[in-house]
Design goal:
It is built from 6 helices and 9 strands, in the order ααββαβαβαββαβββ. The chain is an alpha/beta fold. The chain is globular. The protein binds S-adenosyl-L-homocysteine. The site of S-adenosyl-L-homocysteine has 24 residues, from strand 2, helix 4 and strand 4.
Amino acid sequence: MTDDDLATRKMQFLYALRSRGVTDNAVLQAMEEIDRGPFVRGLFAERAYEDMPLPIACGQTISQPSVVGLMTQALQVTPRDKVLEIGTGSGYQAAILAKIARRVYTIDRHRRLVREARAIFEELDLHTITAITGDGSHGLPDQAPFDRIIVTAAAEDPPGPLLAQLKVGGIMVLPVGQSDAVQSLIRVRKHETGLEYDELREVRFVPLLEGLGKE
Ligand code: SAH
């Protein structure tokens, strides 16, 4: 790909994001700064600038960029925020969060994905991200509470430990529903008086699974 081709593809990429409803300037700027290319390796690297989910290692997927944008926007991240992401995958979503938030913790059940994502964070000088191997449905009690929590794998219901580790005034965005059906992206706001739920749109994510992956 020539530099001109790359520049054109990136422009189309940003245009596609806007036309699908990603309008928040901080989110668009972060997505302009973080190149999706390095997060999509191998066979599908050529297609990194298409608005499509793509396969990554361990049978997982890097989410569709417009969905990453819409979820980040729904999370209303500010520069003061400590954010927890469940489902590191390629590391792309965490990298975008790191451009906006103060601190990002990201967990995946696949050791290999965590290792590969760490290497990219290192290359890109993204030193405010900590990537951890573990079962994210338990959250990260050591670092709790969090201002924002984002889950990028679908559970049937919001996991209790994650709700418990969200600050009062905090926001959590996650897909809920059966893994083989269409799921709903929901936003949960935690108030002094209880939880407020908003349904945002239909999405399709890989399931949130228990325990650690094989590699
Ligand atoms: N946010 C990613 C895409 C995530 S795909 C990106 O930007 O590329 C969903 C990820 O959730 C997969 O990598 C899968 O291994 C992980 N996952 C599923 N169940 C999990 C669990 N209980 N704890 C942590 N990670 C989990």
